Amino acid sequence: MQTILITGASSGYGLETARHFLERGWNVIATMRSPDRSVLPSSENLRVLPLDVTSEASIAALVEAAGPVDVLVNNAGVGGVGAFEAMPMSLIRQLVETNSIGVMAMTRAFIPQMRERRSGTIVNVTSSVTLGDFPLAAAYTGSKQAVEGFTASLAIELAYFGVRAKLVEPGYAPTTRFGANSIVPVDQLLPGEYAAFAQPILQGFANPPLTTRESDVAEAIWEAVHDDSGRLRFPAGPDAVALAGGSK
Q1: Which candidate in 13, 140, 172, 194 is catalytic?
Q2: Out of 84, 103, 139, 166, which residue is the most buried by the measure of CB atoms under 10 Å away?
Protein backbone atom coordinates (compact mmCIF):
# COMPACT_ATOMS: atom_id res chain seq x y z
CA MET A 1 0.00 0.00 0.00
CA GLN A 2 1.46 3.35 -1.03
CA THR A 3 1.56 6.55 1.02
CA ILE A 4 0.77 10.04 -0.24
CA LEU A 5 1.47 13.23 1.71
CA ILE A 6 -0.62 16.27 0.80
CA THR A 7 0.00 19.82 1.99
CA GLY A 8 -2.84 22.28 2.45
CA ALA A 9 -5.38 19.50 2.97
CA SER A 10 -7.86 21.36 5.18
CA SER A 11 -9.96 22.58 2.24
CA GLY A 12 -10.20 22.89 -1.54
CA TYR A 13 -7.94 20.86 -3.79
CA GLY A 14 -5.93 19.34 -0.98
CA LEU A 15 -8.98 18.12 0.90
CA GLU A 16 -10.58 16.61 -2.21
CA THR A 17 -7.29 14.96 -3.18
CA ALA A 18 -7.01 13.39 0.27
CA ARG A 19 -10.55 12.00 -0.09
CA HIS A 20 -9.80 10.78 -3.62
CA PHE A 21 -6.76 8.75 -2.61
CA LEU A 22 -8.36 7.45 0.60
CA GLU A 23 -11.29 6.09 -1.41
CA ARG A 24 -8.80 4.21 -3.60
CA GLY A 25 -7.07 2.47 -0.73
CA TRP A 26 -3.98 4.64 -0.26
CA ASN A 27 -2.38 5.62 3.01
CA VAL A 28 -2.93 9.38 3.24
CA ILE A 29 -1.01 11.91 5.32
CA ALA A 30 -3.05 15.10 5.24
CA THR A 31 -1.16 18.13 6.52
CA MET A 32 -2.70 21.37 7.74
CA ARG A 33 -1.62 24.48 9.59
CA SER A 34 -4.35 23.74 12.16
CA PRO A 35 -5.05 19.98 12.02
CA ASP A 36 -8.74 19.06 11.92
CA ARG A 37 -9.38 15.37 11.39
CA SER A 38 -13.14 15.94 11.21
CA VAL A 39 -12.94 17.37 7.66
CA LEU A 40 -12.00 13.91 6.32
CA PRO A 41 -13.71 10.52 6.58
CA SER A 42 -12.67 8.31 9.47
CA SER A 43 -10.11 5.81 8.21
CA GLU A 44 -7.29 3.71 9.62
CA ASN A 45 -5.34 4.74 6.49
CA LEU A 46 -5.46 8.45 7.41
CA ARG A 47 -3.05 10.54 9.43
CA VAL A 48 -3.52 14.29 9.94
CA LEU A 49 -0.33 16.15 10.84
CA PRO A 50 0.53 19.81 11.45
CA LEU A 51 2.60 21.71 8.91
CA ASP A 52 3.65 25.26 8.18
CA VAL A 53 5.55 25.18 4.87
CA THR A 54 7.26 28.47 5.75
CA SER A 55 8.87 26.98 8.88
CA GLU A 56 12.02 24.85 8.64
CA ALA A 57 11.33 23.42 12.10
CA SER A 58 7.78 22.45 11.13
CA ILE A 59 8.99 20.74 7.96
CA ALA A 60 11.71 18.85 9.85
CA ALA A 61 9.19 17.64 12.43
CA LEU A 62 6.86 16.49 9.65
CA VAL A 63 9.58 14.50 7.88
CA GLU A 64 10.34 12.72 11.14
CA ALA A 65 6.67 12.00 11.88
CA ALA A 66 5.67 11.01 8.36
CA GLY A 67 8.26 8.32 7.70
CA PRO A 68 8.47 6.83 4.18
CA VAL A 69 6.38 8.70 1.60
CA ASP A 70 5.82 7.49 -1.97
CA VAL A 71 4.12 10.64 -3.27
CA LEU A 72 4.46 14.25 -2.14
CA VAL A 73 1.79 16.71 -3.27
CA ASN A 74 2.77 20.33 -2.72
CA ASN A 75 -0.64 21.99 -2.75
CA ALA A 76 -0.51 24.54 0.10
CA GLY A 77 -0.63 28.12 -1.06
CA VAL A 78 -2.00 31.60 -0.50
CA GLY A 79 -3.69 34.01 -2.88
CA GLY A 80 -3.10 37.62 -3.74
CA VAL A 81 -5.04 39.61 -6.32
CA GLY A 82 -4.85 43.33 -6.93
CA ALA A 83 -2.84 46.07 -8.57
CA PHE A 84 0.84 45.24 -8.20
CA GLU A 85 1.61 48.89 -7.45
CA ALA A 86 -0.61 48.71 -4.38
CA MET A 87 0.86 45.51 -2.98
CA PRO A 88 3.16 46.04 -0.01
CA MET A 89 6.46 44.20 -0.19
CA SER A 90 5.45 42.25 2.92
CA LEU A 91 2.57 40.72 0.94
CA ILE A 92 4.78 39.93 -2.05
CA ARG A 93 7.30 38.23 0.25
CA GLN A 94 4.52 36.17 1.86
CA LEU A 95 3.33 35.00 -1.56
CA VAL A 96 6.81 33.93 -2.59
CA GLU A 97 7.64 32.44 0.82
CA THR A 98 4.56 30.19 0.79
CA ASN A 99 3.88 29.50 -2.88
CA SER A 100 7.46 29.23 -4.14
CA ILE A 101 9.97 28.71 -1.33
CA GLY A 102 7.53 26.55 0.65
CA VAL A 103 7.28 24.16 -2.30
CA MET A 104 11.04 24.10 -2.72
CA ALA A 105 11.63 23.51 1.00
CA MET A 106 9.15 20.62 1.15
CA THR A 107 10.58 19.08 -2.00
CA ARG A 108 14.13 19.32 -0.73
CA ALA A 109 13.11 17.70 2.56
CA PHE A 110 11.62 14.59 0.91
CA ILE A 111 14.03 14.07 -2.00
CA PRO A 112 16.65 12.15 0.05
CA GLN A 113 14.38 9.25 0.95
CA MET A 114 13.03 9.00 -2.61
CA ARG A 115 16.52 9.14 -4.10
CA GLU A 116 17.72 6.40 -1.76
CA ARG A 117 14.78 4.17 -2.74
CA ARG A 118 15.14 5.10 -6.43
CA SER A 119 11.39 5.72 -6.56
CA GLY A 120 8.81 8.36 -5.72
CA THR A 121 6.75 11.14 -7.26
CA ILE A 122 6.57 14.84 -6.42
CA VAL A 123 3.49 16.70 -7.68
CA ASN A 124 3.60 20.49 -7.50
CA VAL A 125 0.25 22.24 -7.82
CA THR A 126 0.48 25.61 -9.56
CA SER A 127 -2.33 27.44 -11.37
CA SER A 128 -3.74 28.23 -14.79
CA VAL A 129 -2.34 31.75 -14.34
CA THR A 130 0.86 30.16 -15.68
CA LEU A 131 -0.95 29.29 -18.93
CA GLY A 132 -2.23 32.71 -19.96
CA ASP A 133 -2.24 36.43 -19.27
CA PHE A 134 -3.98 37.37 -16.02
CA PRO A 135 -3.93 41.04 -14.99
CA LEU A 136 -4.24 41.91 -11.29
CA ALA A 137 -2.32 38.74 -10.44
CA ALA A 138 1.27 39.70 -11.23
CA ALA A 139 2.87 38.73 -7.93
CA TYR A 140 0.74 35.60 -7.52
CA THR A 141 1.54 34.54 -11.08
CA GLY A 142 5.24 35.12 -10.45
CA SER A 143 5.12 32.88 -7.38
CA LYS A 144 3.51 30.09 -9.41
CA GLN A 145 5.69 30.54 -12.50
CA ALA A 146 8.71 30.07 -10.26
CA VAL A 147 7.41 26.61 -9.34
CA GLU A 148 6.83 25.78 -13.01
CA GLY A 149 10.46 26.49 -13.91
CA PHE A 150 11.73 24.81 -10.76
CA THR A 151 9.76 21.62 -11.44
CA ALA A 152 10.71 21.42 -15.12
CA SER A 153 14.39 21.50 -14.23
CA LEU A 154 14.01 19.27 -11.19
CA ALA A 155 12.23 16.58 -13.21
CA ILE A 156 15.34 16.12 -15.34
CA GLU A 157 17.81 15.78 -12.48
CA LEU A 158 15.56 13.49 -10.40
CA ALA A 159 14.79 11.20 -13.34
CA TYR A 160 18.37 9.92 -13.07
CA PHE A 161 17.41 8.43 -9.69
CA GLY A 162 14.03 7.05 -10.78
CA VAL A 163 12.10 9.88 -9.07
CA ARG A 164 9.43 11.80 -10.98
CA ALA A 165 8.38 15.45 -10.71
CA LYS A 166 5.05 16.63 -12.14
CA LEU A 167 3.02 19.82 -12.44
CA VAL A 168 -0.75 20.05 -11.98
CA GLU A 169 -2.22 23.36 -13.20
CA PRO A 170 -5.74 24.01 -11.86
CA GLY A 171 -8.11 26.46 -13.46
CA TYR A 172 -10.33 28.93 -11.63
CA ALA A 173 -12.42 27.22 -8.96
CA PRO A 174 -14.93 29.65 -7.38
CA THR A 175 -16.04 27.00 -4.88
CA THR A 176 -12.62 26.91 -3.18
CA ARG A 177 -11.39 29.27 -0.48
CA PHE A 178 -8.96 31.08 -2.80
CA GLY A 179 -10.51 34.44 -1.96
CA ALA A 180 -10.64 33.68 1.75
CA ASN A 181 -7.01 32.52 1.63
CA SER A 182 -5.88 35.80 0.09
CA ILE A 183 -3.54 37.59 2.45
CA VAL A 184 -5.13 40.98 1.74
CA PRO A 185 -8.68 41.42 0.31
CA VAL A 186 -8.69 42.52 -3.31
CA ASP A 187 -10.69 45.70 -2.58
CA GLN A 188 -7.78 46.94 -0.45
CA LEU A 189 -5.38 46.51 -3.36
CA LEU A 190 -7.22 48.56 -5.99
CA PRO A 191 -6.46 52.27 -5.64
CA GLY A 192 -8.93 54.65 -7.29
CA GLU A 193 -6.84 55.03 -10.42
CA TYR A 194 -7.25 51.30 -11.12
CA ALA A 195 -11.02 51.11 -10.61
CA ALA A 196 -12.07 51.48 -14.25
CA PHE A 197 -9.40 49.02 -15.39
CA ALA A 198 -10.28 46.45 -12.72
CA GLN A 199 -14.07 46.52 -13.05
CA PRO A 200 -14.46 44.37 -16.21
CA ILE A 201 -11.75 41.97 -15.00
CA LEU A 202 -13.50 41.42 -11.67
CA GLN A 203 -16.82 41.00 -13.49
CA GLY A 204 -15.17 38.28 -15.55
CA PHE A 205 -14.05 36.54 -12.36
CA ALA A 206 -17.64 36.67 -11.12
CA ASN A 207 -19.08 35.14 -14.32
CA PRO A 208 -16.47 32.85 -15.85
CA PRO A 209 -17.50 30.82 -18.92
CA LEU A 210 -15.57 27.77 -17.69
CA THR A 211 -14.57 26.78 -14.17
CA THR A 212 -12.70 24.04 -12.36
CA ARG A 213 -14.04 21.73 -9.67
CA GLU A 214 -12.01 20.39 -6.78
CA SER A 215 -12.59 16.90 -8.18
CA ASP A 216 -10.97 17.94 -11.50
CA VAL A 217 -7.77 18.69 -9.63
CA ALA A 218 -7.88 15.51 -7.57
CA GLU A 219 -8.30 13.48 -10.77
CA ALA A 220 -5.42 15.32 -12.45
CA ILE A 221 -3.18 14.60 -9.46
CA TRP A 222 -4.21 10.93 -9.62
CA GLU A 223 -3.34 10.91 -13.33
CA ALA A 224 0.01 12.61 -12.72
CA VAL A 225 0.93 10.14 -9.98
CA HIS A 226 0.20 7.17 -12.23
CA ASP A 227 1.77 8.60 -15.40
CA ASP A 228 4.92 6.87 -16.61
CA SER A 229 5.16 8.53 -20.02
CA GLY A 230 7.48 11.33 -18.93
CA ARG A 231 4.76 13.95 -19.27
CA LEU A 232 5.37 17.01 -17.07
CA ARG A 233 2.23 19.18 -17.14
CA PHE A 234 -1.35 18.24 -16.25
CA PRO A 235 -3.90 21.07 -16.66
CA ALA A 236 -6.91 20.49 -14.41
CA GLY A 237 -10.40 21.71 -15.24
CA PRO A 238 -12.03 22.76 -18.52
CA ASP A 239 -10.70 26.32 -18.40
CA ALA A 240 -7.13 25.20 -17.73
CA VAL A 241 -7.34 22.59 -20.49
CA ALA A 242 -8.57 25.26 -22.92
CA LEU A 243 -5.72 27.60 -21.98
CA ALA A 244 -3.23 24.77 -22.40
CA GLY A 245 -4.35 24.23 -25.97
CA GLY A 246 -7.46 22.12 -25.65
CA SER A 247 -5.90 18.77 -24.78
CA LYS A 248 -4.48 17.18 -21.66
Answers
A1: 140
A2: 103
